[in-house]
Design goal:
about 250 residues; Helix Hairpins
């Protein structure tokens, strides 16, 4: 097999059967066919299309998750707010009742500046005040818990927003770049063959020149040997003359 085969790594490109293009055991026509077939397979456009479509699908899926999670956060937040305002309303009513009771207690009892356990009022209104105060403290603890939960929900949405803002910008940039690349590649397929490539891959002109040069040398040799193409001797000398041409070239 030709030494040029050492330049190819079948593990890197399993679709390229180098032997089918270089083996001396195969006819030239078959090697040409195999080479052109391999050339036609060199196309990354389908892979780019697959990559672009996959990226768009992932974007759609992740945006759906964003909407679902944001909706869940919102629903929980609204529920928490409703519960919070209900507790605040109850607490406000209790505080109003407590103020009324405390007014009665202060009116009916002369309270010293330095209030001690011994001087605490023993009235029914004061006991009611203490009961309402205890109940209101329970409400206040629940209110604090709900406020903490609301704050956590806001932080969760803020975390989602911040990460999506950064990542979606990158994803959209990748989608735009791939789409632009794909558009350029598809446009290139429709364009005429560039003159640069026409001249770069134009070995047939060299073959035509070889034929012309050989014909000129052949005619020169024929004239030198004073051979007449119509003479029967000409046919007998054809093979020898071709061999002489190779010698002249060297």
């Amino acid at each position: 097999m030709n030494n040029r085969l050492s330049n190819f790594n079948p593990l890197e490109d399993p679709s390229f059967n180098a032997e089918s293009c270089y083996s001396d055991r195969l006819p030239l026509e078959e090697k040409i066919t195999q080479t052109i077939l391999y050339l036609s397979k060199i196309d990354e456009v389908p892979n780019i299309e697959k990559l672009l479509n996959g990226l768009k699908l992932q974007k759609s899926n992740i945006l759906s998750l964003y909407d679902i999670l944001s909706s869940e956060i919102k629903n929980k937040l609204l529920d928490q707010l409703e519960e919070l305002f209900e507790l605040k309303l109850k607490s406000s009513k209790l505080e109003r009742s407590m103020d009324q009771l405390l007014y009665v207690v202060r009116t009916n009892n002369l309270l010293p500046n330095n209030l001690t356990q011994e001087h605490l009022p023993k009235s029914k209104e004061y006991r009611q005040f203490l009961a309402l105060y205890s109940e209101n403290m329970t409400f206040q603890q629940e209110i604090l818990k709900i406020k903490s939960s609301v704050s956590l929900l806001l932080d969760s949405q803020r975390l989602l927003d911040r990460n999506f803002a950064v990542q979606m910008a990158q994803i959209d940039y990748q989608i735009i770049s791939l789409a632009r690349m794909l558009s350029n590649l598809n446009e290139a397929k429709r364009e005429e063959v560039d003159s640069l490539y026409s001249s770069k891959f134009d070995k047939v002109e060299g073959l035509i020149k070889d034929i012309t040069d050989r014909e000129a040398k052949f005619n020169k040799l024929r004239l030198t040997m004073k051979l007449n193409p119509e003479n029967f001797i000409y046919d007998g000398f054809k093979k020898d003359i071709l061999n002489d041409l190779n010698s002249i070239e060297k």
